[in-house]
Automatic annotation (TrEMBL):
Signal peptide: none annotated. InterPro entries: MukB/SMC. This is Chromosome partition protein MukB. GO terms for biological process: chromosome condensation; chromosome segregation. One of its GO terms (cellular component) is cytoplasm. Keywords: Chromosome partition, Cytoplasm, DNA condensation, DNA-binding. It comes from Klebsiella pneumoniae. It comes from the Bacteria.
Amino acid sequence: MSILVMVVQSWEDESRPPARQGYLALRLLFLDEAARLDARSIATLFELCERLEMQLIIAAPENISPEKGTTYKLVRKVFNNHEHVHVVGLRGFAAPAAGSAAGNGRRLLTMQLTTGG
C-alpha cells in the first residue's frame, strides 16, 4: 500500500505546474474492467482511495458491491424502438461512521431516461 501511495503522490506532484503549487488536485481514479480484479485487489483499491481521499469511479459488474460510498447502477433496456436507462443510486452497506446518521442501503436516486428511435 505504501508504494501505491508514494506513486500517486509523486505523480500528482510532478504533474502540477509550479504556478499552481498552492492548489489541491482533484483526485479521481477511473477504472474499467474491474471484473478482472480479485477481492483482495478491490479491497486494496478502496483502501488507497480512502487514504488519499480520492474518488473512485469504476465500471464493474453487479458482483462487485462496495461497502462504502455511493454506487450508481445503470440498466439499459430497449422496448418498441425506445431505449430506457434506469439509474439507481445506493449507499454502501458498511456500518456508518461514528456520529453519522446515514442509513445503510438507503436508496438515494431513481431516475429513468428515455430516448426515441
